[in-house]
Amino acid sequence: MKIIIVSIIFLSISFNVHSGDFNFETSAEGIATALTNQKSKKRVKTRGLKGINVKKTRSIKVVGEEKGLVVEKTVLIPSDQTDRSVNLKIEFDVDSSAIRSDSFALLDELGKALTGAKLAGKDLAIIGHTDSDGDVNYNLKLSLSRAVSVKTYLTTNFQIEAYRLTVFGYGESLPLVPDNNTGNKQLNRRVEITLKE
Length: 197
Description:
The chain is α+β, with helices and mostly antiparallel strands. It is 36% helix and 22% strand. It has helices at residues 2-21, 28-36, 104-115, 136-157, 182-188, and strands spanning 57-66, 69-78, 85-88, 124-129, 165-171, 190-195. A hairpin with a 2-residue loop joins strand 1 and strand 2 (69-78). The radius of gyration is 16 Å and the shape is globular.
């Protein structure tokens, strides 16, 4: 019993330590600040959207929605996460794009940030990420479905115009940490919000 309790405490501490290191936010103010880059943040070794001027890049396969159609393409992305992005620990049902009710409070903080003065009228990308369990192509589609669920929640519950939010699925291609244990897999399953410039 003590081993189980110690393991749970360790995973909890481990996630909290990693959360600070990987640009996870939980408040409307923290989200808005990260997206407007008003406070200098440590660059996260992962990547971001194309069009950012950095030295190291790589190409990955992503899926997105364009004019109501799912489009698959290969994009060139930087090795570092963009300065104007934030990771959110939004949880979904297993093998599903149904958002768990315990993530609604975090989505409400995101909605407040997107309708607040710092981000009003700005365009953003919602990027879904998965762990490496399952087929690569399945994970791409699942990550896109989850990004769409976040967009739907935001446009349904807040006065946010749908055209401001572009959705992408990056699947398992951009893990924050090695995808080799339960805690790391949980970190890699995330939703990233990026300010489009």
